[in-house]
Design a protein that fits this description.
- The chain is of the alpha+beta class.
- It has one domain.
- It is rod-shaped and about 110 Å long.
Length: about 170
């Protein structure tokens, strides 16, 4: 048997180094592609999640403002002239003054006096609908807001594209 020459030993070492370098490059490229995919997924998801979170928080704030006002209402003075409007007299307002909360053009508006627009406040924007119902001295408020869900999540268009909050408010004053 002939001993290997220094030239053939150098060639085999070069081949082993080349193979390990190519193997390392392939693993590095695979990891880079995976990290890039995760970054793209995170950016796309963030755009959807941020919008969902903003709409959800706006709906929650609207309901909180409504609950704050209606809790101070005199229960005997509450009326719901239409599904999108509630009127009441509040202990926080001058005696005999009627306030109203109305949903109009995607905005929740509070009027401390139904006879004037002075003091009008906007509670929230971006709601799809806001409805009021009066039952046994309890006010039920339903807020529907845009909530983009993955395609095919629900059976109906309402389930696919909207979120709903429902709250029941019991006025503290008889």
């Amino acid at each position: 048997m002939m001993p290997h020459s220094p030239l053939s030993r150098a060639r085999s070492q070069s081949a082993a180094i080349l193979m390990s370098t190519l193997f390392s490059l392939a693993i590095g490229a695979g990891v880079s592609v995976f990290v890039g995919y995760l970054a793209i997924f995170a950016v796309k998801s963030d755009a959807i999640l941020f919008t969902q979170m903003s709409n959800q928080m706006a709906a929650g704030r609207s309901l909180q403002h409504i609950a704050d006002r209606v809790c101070n209402a005199k229960s005997s003075s509450i009326s719901v002239p239409s599904a999108s409007e509630i009127r009441f007299q509040s202990v926080a307002l001058p005696s005999g003054q009627t306030a109203k909360i109305v949903f109009s053009n995607g905005q929740t508006l509070y009027y401390p006096n139904v006879n004037t627009t002075a003091g009008r406040q906007t509670f929230g924007k971006g709601l799809v609908s806001l409805t009021f119902a009066l039952t046994n001295q309890m006010v039920e408020v339903t807020a529907v807001y845009k909530y983009r869900k993955p395609k095919g999540y629900g059976q109906t268009e309402q389930e696919k594209m909207n979120g709903t909050f429902v709250t029941r408010i019991y006025p503290r004053n008889g």
